Amino acid sequence: MKIHFVGIGGIGMSALARLYHESGHQISGSDFEDSELLNLLRKEGIRIQIGHASNQVPKNANCVIYSEAILNNNVELKKARQLKIPLKTYFAALGEFTANKKTICIAGTHGKTTTTALVAKILIDAKLDPSIVIGTQMQELDNKNMRSGKGEYMVVEACEYRRSFHYLKPQLIILTNIELDHVDYYKNIADYLSAFKEFIQKLPPTGFLIANYDDLNIRKIIKTTPVKVIRYSQKSSELIKIKLKVPGQHNLMNALAAFTLGKSLNLDEKIILKSLNNFTGTWRRFEYLGKFNKALIYTDYAHHPTEIQATLKAAREKYPKYRIIVVFQPHQYSRARYFLKQFSESFSLADEVIIPNIYKVRDSIEDSQAVTPEKMVKEIQKHHKKVKYGKGLGSTTAYLKQKITKNDLVLIMGAGDVWEITGELVSKK
To answer: Is the dihedral of CA 79, 81, 84, 86 positive or negative?
Structure first.
């Protein structure tokens, strides 16, 4: 089959493209801008074009798969409709893959990626040869975001945005936690909870749910679920000898979820614990990149107030005597606007906070006008003495180069393009 991907540079889209490519299909794709990830796809034999144009859609394509971030009026989607080529969203196409495997879906507001990575590592170490789709790059996957295995299991990071995970066909679900997010789509917490409740209902009678019982919202939605529920909680850690190399209570909870999954599959406990204790983390999850002027440079994907607090707690736990300088780029004006008060209270464990800008994606004019970087700085200043507006990525980088020194830890945080700062501070590995 010939399959064309529109928005192939996304972390999920690139993983799916690789799955199809390794299955023997002829793959092409396009994206708005180039990246290191796209360079890797080229090296693997996938044809990539930068920018969107109608003539980039192969006339004899069997299918066009597009990212949920691609607008409906995209010229390549229009061309595919004109040529009567079947169109599928990323999750619709991924859902077809999951129908042919015993699919383990990791869902929740926070911790999905790390928990998926931990589960993936356990299944690989247990020689189960799983297929994997994850929203990051893993050392265990040769620094890729997918694995095409011959075993019966498939491990998938299940995103709730626009109820996308409803396309998946799970045999087993892990629920890490539930807290309102994606406020550009979900109306309120009730709407958000309904999406997770419907997802659980997709489990077959033989399937089961692994649930964090410390989470109030999870307890609410599993009250009436007909499937088997296996609970885990913070108390479980007192009985299990997990000694993680990655810091933070939130990572311990992620590990407990993965441990519970391994035990539910009757895997050897020694293999499970060895796998967890040897886990060294993933790309952009409190990832150490190197040094600049003797200061430690870390990057993290956190973009929700709860995630910021958890990451800073882990950083402070690991480096109690360091001055922690956070560069935080809010992801979406809508999220910044909705969680403004919570964001303002999230940086108590940092010594200095810099807001370079706000990353705009899927935002309305109303949201963009309601909140600005300067307004965020003023709100954070109500709770923190040392906060500044960075006036863009370039100016923020220049400030850091002049400012940081030995015993500083710089944490570049956010889900947008703020990571580009790290390339200016640390040479590529």
So the answer is: positive
Residue 320 has a CB neighbour count (10 Å cut-off) of: 7
CATH of domain 2-91: 3.40.50.720
Number of alpha carbons in the 13 Å side-chain half-sphere of residue 134: 32
Q: DSSP code of 359?
A: B
Tell me the whole-structure pTM to 2 decimals.
0.90
Q: In the block, which residue shows the tokens 């906060």?
A: 387
pLDDT number for residue 235:
86
Q: What is the pLDDT of residues 12-65, one digit of tens each?
A: 999 999 999 999 999 999 999 888 889 999 999 999 999 999 999 999 999 999
Residues constituting the chain: 429
- Amino acid identity at 163: R
Structure tokens, 214 = 């410390």
Task: Report which of 214, 215, 210 is spatially closest to residue 230, judged by C-alpha positions.
Answer: 210
Q: What is the pLDDT of residues 197-213, one digit of tens each?
A: 999 999 999 999 999 99
Q: Which two tokens stand for residue 330?
A: 């809010």
Q: Tell me how far apart the alpha carbons of residues 308 and 45 are, in angstroms, rounded to a whole number.
A: 38
- CATH architecture, domain defined by 287-425: Alpha-Beta Complex (3.90)
At 48, the amino acid letter reads I
According to the 3-state scheme, what is the secondary structure of 327-340? EECCECHHHHHHCH
Domain spanning 99-277: CATH superfamily: Mur-like, catalytic domain (3.40.1190.10)
Smallest Cα–Cα separation from 302: which of 337, 257, 335? Answer: 335
